[in-house]
Amino acid sequence: MLHEGDLTKTTLRTPRAAAVAGIVFGVMLLLSLWLLRISIPAEPLASNAWLGDHARVIAVALSLIPLTGIAFLWLIGVVRDRLGEREDRLFATVFLGSGLLFLAMLFAAAAVASAALIVFSDTSEAVDLRTFAFARVLISDLINVYATKMAGAFMFSTSTVVIYTGFAPRYIGFLGYGLGLLLLFGSQLFQWSFFVFPAWVILLSAHILAADLRRQSPVRTPNY
Fold it and tell me: Which structural domain range is residue 96 located in?
């Protein structure tokens, strides 16, 4: 008979916990990135009038980033615990390291954006356009170069775990390889390439959740 503590620990280790965390992470990251994309102009030297026009939308998008990070950490923790003894040290290091570096780059970009927003809202004087151009280029590099590359490395390591452990269909692993290559070597060519990572995490998490629900659903025998 399981004690209450053992039952709680077993519940936290179920694939459903990782799947829910992955879906929450993907949806919130997609939403925050989409809000930022439609609010910030593509030209680095554009007028800073967009800060006043979309300040509230940008603030909402930035407020989602910390919650996104918490969900991502939960996903990493549950997946590692789920693998247990099957976890390979090499891929575990890449998996954990790339995930943490991805979050670090994402949080750094959000902090720079938040600082620019606060400076604009608190000052009554004209803001130097070059200052905001620098901030925008820095944010773009942190997200589109460094965070995206780490997301690609995370997809590679996770896809390898998927293929060798079989906790998800192999096609999701091979798809992760292809999309990871896109993020590693071609992210600068596609403006919306960063959206690939959360979309893939949602796909992986949705399958894990569906498989877990099917496995736990009771089998009904017909009555004759």
Answer: 16-216
pLDDT digits (tens, 9 = 90+) for 71-130: 999 888 877 776 666 666 777 788 889 999 999 999 999 998 888 888 777 665 556 677
Q: Does residue 7 belong to any structural domain of this protein?
A: no
* Residue 78: Cβ-neighbour burial (10 angstroms; 0-12, 13-18, 19+): buried
The backbone region for 221, taken as left when phi is positive above 0, alpha when psi lies in -120 to 50, beta otherwise, is beta
pLDDT tens-digit readout, 117-162: 887 776 655 566 777 778 788 888 888 889 999 999 999 988 988 8
Q: With H, G, I as helix, E, B as strand and everything else as coil, classify residue 134.
A: helix
- Within a domain: 107: yes
Please state the pTM of the whole predicted model.
Answer: 0.80
CB distance 18 to 72 below 8 Å:
no
Within a domain: 221:
no
Q: Which of 143, 176, 186, 149 is nearest to 37 (CA)?
A: 143
* 5 domain residue, yes or no: no
Distance CA 138, CA 13 (A): 38
